[in-house]
C-alpha cells in the first residue's frame, strides 16, 4: 500500500536515503539511510542540531544537490508514486516550486537583488502555469493578500523590505503555484521574536486555507512544539525518533531527544547552570559505529557501540531508534 | 532614474576632467622641444623667415598669453586652424571621427558578443573544457600586442589567403581585420571579468532559490545571474571602450585607415599644436562621455544605487 502508513495518506515518503559528499578528499555521508513520511495536511517538524543533515535533506527532496563536492544520492523520494530522484531535469523542474515549494531561512539572500517582488512572482507564474501578463496581475494581488503584504511591495526590491516582509514575500513565491507540499528551512530563525510569531501564524493559517503539507525544519524546539503536528528528530544523518507532537514533548524515548528537551532553558531553571549535551554532533566524515549518539549518551551500553539500532515502533505512532528507549532517568527536581 | 543632483555632480566632474586634460596637453606641447615654425619653414630657412612664421602662428607670444587666448577660443568652441593643412581643426576632426568611432563601436560590440556568452559558458562549467579554452584564449590575446596580432591577421587573411584587402577604407571588407584585431584584445580582458563575476553570482543563494522554484536554467543564467554579474562589467567596459578610441591609433596605422588616430599622430610629429589640442579635447570628451554614460547605466541597472 504505497502512499499510506497506517490510516494516514502520505504526500511525500523518503525511503533509505543516503547522500554522500566529498570533503577534503574524504567521503562524508550527510544522510545515512533516512526514512520519513510526510502526511497529507500535517506540519511535520524536523529537529536536529546544525550538521545533522536538515538542509541536505531539503535539497535532496528537490534533487538540487550539485557542485564539485556532491558525490551521489541513493534511496527513494516518493511523490505521487514517482521517485523524484530518478526524474529527468525537465520533469523535476515542473515539480520544484509548483508542487513542492520551499521557503528559505534568509529571505534577503534568497531573493534576487535585481528583481522586484512582482518580477519574482511573474516568473514563477509564467514558467509553471504559463500565465500571461493580465491574469498574472490578479494572481499576484491575491497572493499578496494571502501573505498580508500591501500591494506597493510588488514594485519594491527585497532590500527595501523588512526581514518579516521579505519572508512574507518568500512565502508568497512558494505558494504562488498552489503547491501540495511546502518545505520550510528554518523560516523564522533569522527573524525577531515578534516577527517570528507572525510568520508562524501565517504558516498555520496558509496550511489550513490551502491544505498544505509542511515539512518544517528547525533547530528551535520551542518553535517546533508550537506549530508541528508530528515531530521527527534527526541525528547523524538518520531519524532517531518520530512521534506526535505531544507524545514526543511529554515523553521522549530517545536519550538524545530527552537531553535536547532538557537543554532548552526555562524560567524554572533560573539561576542554575544550563543543561548542555556533552560532546558535539559527529562529523559526517567520521560517524561513530553502532548508534551515532553512543559516545555522548549517558546510558550507552557495549551493544550501542557495535550494533546500529533501527527506527521501530515502540508503541502506537511513536517510533524510536534506541536499544534502551525511555530508560534515561529523569533528573531529580525536574518533576517538582 | 538617478536624481538631478547625482547627474549634475557627475557632469561637473566630467567638465573639470576635460579641462584638466586639455590644459595639461597645451602646456606639455609647448614645453617639449620642437618648433612648428621651423618645421614648416624647412631646415634651410633663415632666422628671419622663422621668426615671421612664429609671429604668424602666435607661438612667439608668452606662454601665459597663448594659454589665455587658447582658453577663450576653446570656450567658444573655436579650435583654430591647422598650421599645415590651413584648414579649421574642426573640419579635419569631423572628417575623421566617423571612421574611428565606427571602428571602436564595431570592435566593442564584437568584444561583447564574444565575451558575454563565452564568459557565461566558462563560469557555468568551471574547470571544464570550455573554461580552459577560454582561459587559454584570454591569456594569449592579452599577451600579444594588438599591432602584432593585426600584422598576423594581415599576413594570414590578406596576404596568404587573400580574403580581405591589405589596407585602406574603401569598403566594409576593409574593416573586418582591424575590427577583429581590436575586438579580440578587448574580449580577452572582458571575458575574464564576465567569468569571475558570473562565478560569484552563480554561487549566491538567490540562484539556488531560483532553481528550487523550478525556473529553467537559461533563465536563471541570463536573466538572474548575468544581469547582476554585468554591474562590474559596465564600468570596466567603459574603460575598454575608451581604450579602443585611443588604441585604434596603432591599428589605424597598421591598416592605413584615415581616422582620428592617424591625424593626431601626424600632428604630433609635425608639432601641429591646434590639431593635437583639438584632437585631444575630442578624445577626452568622448572618453569622459562614455564613462558618464556607464555611470548612469550602472545606477540604472543597480536598484540599490538608483534608490539613493
General description of the model:
The complex is a heterodimer of chains A (336) and B (308). Chain A has 336 residues and is of the alpha/beta class. Helices cover 29% and strands 25% of the residues of chain A. Chain A is globular. The termini of chain B are close together. With 308 residues, chain B is mainly alpha-helical. The model of chain B has no long low-confidence stretch (mean pLDDT 87). Helices cover 79% and strands 0% of the residues of chain B. Classes of the chains: A alpha/beta (336), B mainly alpha (308). Chain A binds chain B through residues 62, 64, 89, 92-98, 101-102, 104, 106, 109-115, 123-124, 127-128, 157, 159-160, 173, and chain B through 204-206, 208-217, 219, 223-224, 227-228, 301-304, 307.
Report a brief summary of the structure.
The complex is a heterodimer of chains A (about 325) and B (about 300). Chain A is α/β, with parallel strands linked by helices.
Count of the domains of chain A: 2
- Strand fraction band of chain B? under 5%
- Give the neighbour order of strands across the main sheet of chain A: 7-8-9-4-10-11-13-12
Radius of gyration of chain B: 24 Å
Identify the CATH homologous superfamily of the largest domain in chain A: P-loop containing nucleotide triphosphate hydrolases
Question: Can you give the helix content of chain A as a percent range?
Answer: 25-40%
Distance between the termini of chain B: 10 Å
> Which structural category do the helix and sheet elements of chain B fall into?
mainly alpha
Shape, per Cα inertia axes of chain B: flat
Mean pLDDT of chain B: 87
The second-level CATH architecture of the largest domain in chain B is: Orthogonal Bundle
- Total number of helical segments of chain B? 13
**CATH topology label of the largest domain in chain B:** MetI-like fold
How far is the first residue's CA from the last residue's CA of chain A? 46 Å
What count of helical segments of chain A does DSSP give? Answer: 10
The tally of strands of chain B reads 0
Biggest β-sheet strands, sense, barrel of chain A: 8 strands, mixed
Task: Classify the beta-strand content of chain A into a percent band.
Answer: 25-35%
How much helix is in the residues of chain B?
A: over 70%
What multimeric state do the chains show? heterodimer
Amino acid at each position: 500500500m504505497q502512499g499510506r502508513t497506517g490510516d494516514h495518506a502520505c504526500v511525500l515518503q523518503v525511503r533509505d536515503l543516503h547522500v554522500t559528499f566529498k570533503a577534503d578528499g574524504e567521503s562524508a555521508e550527510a544522510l545515512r539511510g533516512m526514512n520519513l513520511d510526510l502526511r497529507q495536511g500535517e506540519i511535520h517538524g524536523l529537529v536536529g542540531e546544525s550538521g545533522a543533515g536538515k538542509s541536505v535533506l531539503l535539497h535532496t527532496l528537490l534533487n538540487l544537490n550539485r557542485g564539485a563536492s556532491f558525490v551521489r544520492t541513493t534511496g527513494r523520494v516518493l511523490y505521487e508514486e514517482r521517485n523524484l530522484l530518478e526524474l529527468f531535469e525537465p520533469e523535476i523542474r515542473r515539480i520544484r516550486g509548483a508542487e513542492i515549494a520551499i521557503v528559505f531561512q534568509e529571505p534577503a539572500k534568497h531573493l534576487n537583488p535585481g528583481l522586484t517582488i512582482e518580477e519574482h512572482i511573474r516568473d514563477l507564474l509564467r514558467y509553471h502555469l504559463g500565465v500571461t501578463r493580465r491574469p498574472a496581475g490578479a494572481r499576484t494581488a491575491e497572493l499578496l493578500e494571502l501573505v498580508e503584504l500591501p500591494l506597493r511591495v510588488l514594485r519594491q526590491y527585497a532590500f527595501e523590505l523588512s526581514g518579516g516582509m521579505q519572508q512574507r514575500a518568500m512565502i508568497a513565491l512558494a505558494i504562488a503555484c498552489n503547491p501540495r507540499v511546502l518545505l520550510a528551512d528554518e523560516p523564522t530563525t533569522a527573524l525577531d521574536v515578534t516577527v517570528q510569531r507572525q510568520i508562524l501564524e501565517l504558516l498555520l493559517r496558509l496550511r489550513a486555507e490551502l491544505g498544505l503539507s509542511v515539512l518544517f525544519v528547525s533547530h528551535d524546539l520551542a518553535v517546533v512544539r508550537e506549530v508541528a503536528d508530528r515531530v521527527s528528530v534527526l541525528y547523524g544523518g538518520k531519524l532517531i525518533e518520530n512521534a506526535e507532537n505531544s507524545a514526543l514533548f511529554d515523553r521522549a524515548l530517545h536519550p538524545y531527544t530527552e537531553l535536547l528537551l532538557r537543554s532548552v532553558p526555562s524560567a524554572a531553571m533560573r539561576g542554575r547552570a544550563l543543561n548542555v549535551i556533552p560532546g558535539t554532533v559527529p562529523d559526517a566524515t567520521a560517524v561513530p559505529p553502532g548508534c551515532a549518539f553512543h559516545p555522548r549518551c549517558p546510558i550507552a551500553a557495549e551493544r550501542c557501540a557495535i550494533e546500529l539500532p533501527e527506527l521501530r515502533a515502540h508503541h502506537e505512532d511513536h517510533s524510536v531508534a534506541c536499544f534502551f528507549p525511555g530508560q534515561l532517568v529523569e533528573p531529580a527536581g525536574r518533576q517538582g | 532614474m538617478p536624481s538631478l543632483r547625482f547627474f549634475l555632480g557627475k557632469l561637473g566632474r566630467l567638465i573639470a576632467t576635460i579641462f584638466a586634460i586639455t590644459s595639461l596637453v597645451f602646456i606639455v606641447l609647448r614645453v617639449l622641444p620642437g618648433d612648428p615654425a621651423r618645421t614648416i619653414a624647412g631646415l634651410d630657412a633663415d632666422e628671419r623667415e622663422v621668426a615671421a612664421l612664429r609671429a604668424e602662428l602666435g607661438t612667439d607670444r608668452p606662454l601665459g598669453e597663448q594659454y589665455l587666448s587658447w582658453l577663450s577660443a576653446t570656450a567658444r568652441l573655436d579650435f583654430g586652424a591647422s598650421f599645415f593643412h590651413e584648414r579649421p581643426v574642426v573640419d579635419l576632426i569631423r572628417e575623421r571621427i566617423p571612421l574611428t568611432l565606427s571602428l571602436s563601436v564595431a570592435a566593442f560590440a564584437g568584444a561583447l558578443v564574444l565575451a558575454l556568452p563565452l564568459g557565461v559558458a566558462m563560469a557555468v562549467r568551471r574547470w571544464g573544457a570550455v573554461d580552459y579554452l577560454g582561459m587559454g584564449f584570454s591569456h594569449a590575446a592579452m599577451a600579444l600586442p594588438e599591432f602584432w596580432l593585426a600584422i598576423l591577421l594581415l599576413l594570414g587573411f590578406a596576404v596568404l589567403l587573400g580574403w580581405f584587402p591589405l589596407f585602406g577604407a574603401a569598403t566594409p571588407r576593409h574593416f573586418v581585420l582591424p575590427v577583429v584585431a581590436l575586438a579580440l584584445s578587448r574580449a580577452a580582458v572582458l571575458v575574464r571579468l564576465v567569468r569571475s563575476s558570473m562565478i560569484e553570482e552563480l554561487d549566491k543563494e538567490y540562484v539556488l532559490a531560483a532553481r528550487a522554484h523550478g525556473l529553467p536554467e537559461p533563465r536563471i543564467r541570463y536573466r538572474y545571474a548575468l544581469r547582476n554579474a554585468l554591474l562590474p562589467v559596465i564600468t570596466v567596459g567603459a574603460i575598454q571602450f575608451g581604450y579602443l578610441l585611443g588604441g585604434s591609433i596603432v591599428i589605424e596605422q597598421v591598416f592605413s585607415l584615415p581616422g582620428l588616430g592617424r591625424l593626431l599622430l601626424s600632428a604630433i610629429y609635425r608639432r601641429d599644436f591646434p590639431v593635437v589640442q583639438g584632437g585631444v579635447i575630442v578624445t577626452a570628451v568622448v572618453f569622459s562621455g562614455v564613462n558618464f554614460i556607464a555611470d548612469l547605466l550602472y545606477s540604472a541597472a543597480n536598484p540599490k544605487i538608483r534608490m539613493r
